[in-house]
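Q: C-alpha cells for this one, please.
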Amino acid sequence: MTKKKTARVIRMSQEDWLARAVELFGRDAADWAFVCPSCGQVQSVRDFERFAGEGATPDSASQECIGRYDGHARSEMLSGDRPCNYVAYGLFNVCPVTVVLPDGRESPRFGFAIPSKKPEKA
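A: Here is the predicted structure, written as C-alpha cells:
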C-alpha cells in the first residue's frame, strides 16, 4: 500500500503574513513575489500593475495566476503550461498558505517565491 502525499498548508495571521513578506522582499509591496501552486509561475505584485484596467489588484499576485490576464487563460489548472488561469478562491484550493484575516475569515494564498537577494534594510 502506498501512502498518498498530502500537501502541507501553512496557516498564519494576516499580520504574520505581512511581516514575512517584508522580511523576504522589503517594504515595497510591488516587489513581493509568489508562486502559482498550479503551474509554478513566479509573479510579483508589480507584474499585475499593467492589468489594473482589467480588474487586477495588488492582491492578485498572491491569489491569481497572471495567465488570467496576459492571454493564457486557456491553460488549464495543473496542465504544466505556464502561466495558467488558476485562482486561489476557485472551486479547487491547492494553495500552500491560508491567511487568517482580522475578522476570522480565511484567505487561501500562493506561497512566497524565493527572493534572489535579501532586501536592503530601510
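A few notes: The chain has three helices and six strands. The helical segments are 14-25, 45-48, 60-63.
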